[in-house]
Amino acid sequence: MQVAITKSAADWSRFSNVFLLAAVLVIAAVISHGVFLRPANLMIVLASASAFGLVSFGQALVVISGGFDLSVGSLVAMSISAIVCFRSDFGIVGGTLAAVILSCGAGLFGGFVVARTRIPPFIVTLGVMSIAESMSWLLAAGQPITVEEYNDSIAPLFSFLPLSENVFPILVMLAGLIATSLLLHASKWGRYVYALGDNEAAARIVGVPILRTKLLVYGLSGFLSAVAAIVYLYQNISATPGEGADYLLLSFAATMVGGVNMYGGAGSILGVLVGVLCLASITSALTIAGIPPSVYPGVLGVIVLAVVLVQARLRR
Amino acid sequence: MMTLRVRSTLRHLDVFLILGALLAVAAIFKASTFYNLSNLFAILEMSAVLGIATLGEALVLIVRGVDISVGAMMGLAGTLSACLLPDFGLGVAILVPLAVCAVLGLANGLLIEKGRIPPLVATIGMMWVINGLANAISEGRLIPIDNKAFQQIALGSVLDVVPLFFVGLLIVGGVAYYVRSDYPIGRYVYAIGGDEGAAFYSAIPVGRIRIAIYGVAGFLYGIAGLLMASYVRSGMPSVGRGYEFKAITAAVLGGIALSGGRGNIFKAIVGAVILIVLYGVITAFAVSPYIQGIIQGCILVGAVYYASRYY
After folding, report:
1. CATH code for B14-310?
2. Do A128 and B126 count as a contact with CB atoms less than 8 A apart?
3. Among A164, A194, A241, B131, which is least packed by CB within 10 angstroms?
4. Is the pLDDT of residue B286 over 80?
5. Are A300 and B131 in contact (CB < 8 Å)?
6. Residues A280 and A48 sit within 8 Å (Cβ to Cβ)
7. With an 8 Å Cβ cutoff, are B294 and A312 in contact?
8. Does the pLDDT of residue A1 top 50, yes or no?
9. Is B292 in CB contact (< 8 Å) with chain A?
10. What DSSP character marks residue B180?
11. Contacting residues of B for A111, CB less than 8 Å apart
């Protein structure tokens, strides 16, 4: 009986994602008087979802493993600054590498501390967040941040397509989606992540390599943050230090709306993609409707709380 | 035997030792820039702001929660107050923001206790909602405060150097210290954090007390926000940005256990003073202010690590 209830709840929540997306698309279309549904706009929405989608996939891995990663937004900011800082000495390739190494390193460090001490994940990643935010200011050293290289070198590759500017971000998000899905749903490491999030003590007893699994999820989250920084610079070219911190909010919201269990142990990357698309659609519709951007966090907050309340009710 | 007693005394006084060491460093190297009237006043004023916020956060941590909405509430209180001041006068501009913050705090508690949402998720969600509210009120702008009486709130002082609110904070901390062990409500609060199940079966109204604690915490964040607004003479939604982090760091530094049920309110306030004095010392040494975040992150993780090893 208990199993049956859980199963129907699971079915409901699987379809609820689709319903949710459909509902959001309809609402978005109504708010924007149909502008939202034009193909050009849909493509722009997809592209705008790219950077925070990548961050959200990383966040989802961490949440499924039973943790929280509050550092993702600041790692994006740090990566942006690192690219600029190291570009002057090592060129754009060197700068990119340095950013990836730094961001990955920060993620791995967080994972190591989470695995090896009894410090709660949110405290560890809060510490990493604070350090990364400072680093983003220190590395930028007060210079304005402008990086044209990505856009200049990558955009022409797709110039034969309509709206070619948006192809690269969408492709990167797709790659991130496929890679994290394969890892989570088709490899033994994915099983470890679920086991860890479901019951860490049991996972330890049956021989799940706790340390390596945590290093994997937190390190990957850091890596995806660095990739998101590259996509961000491709799209925006310039940035101010500390920019990208909003991705924490967005990734968190996407993970929750996407049906990932906030206690860990359940959720899917496809669900998170639905969450990402929902949020991107809502943001786009609000923009078209002319709502001031400073109010968006409030709207997202209400949505997250509502979804989480329903989720908590279903679990009972 | 002797060394044991010395060691345990040292552990009881650890925060005071750190504070003393910091003040000594400032005295030895930067006496003239650190120990002047205006700098000391600024440090004590910011200590009062952070101390009041830490008080709320510490209460929440003791009942085994956590509150990330601190900074957003502070911003909302200041913004609301700046908005109300020109039209409704001082009384309304103080009471309404405090009431709103208390209600939002209660909403935090209800989401956590009745909605069964983990405190971290609930208060992060509320943080965005509150921030959105503040931004909607101010339309994202800074609202200057011209009201002389309101500006005076932060400037009231004892002997020209100790802000009144700092004195008040110390008194509240001292009272909280006695309430902790000598009154039922203090023991209830610690019991809930220590072992919720045991508290429940001892007929302690766990849910109601926890919701009330979040409400009290919201009220305290409101006071901190108003004090801040009075000090910077403006209301701005982002003024409290990062304060949730500072308040948690200060509380943990003061020995409040993240696992709940343990810690001394008064020491948490001293933890807040330590953080602010540390920033003052960093500024006095003219190191890049961006170093602050790095130091703060290390302190937070280090303090929790220390606590997880030794308590």
Report:
1. 1.10.3470
2. no
3. A164
4. no
5. no
6. yes
7. no
8. no
9. yes
10. H
11. none
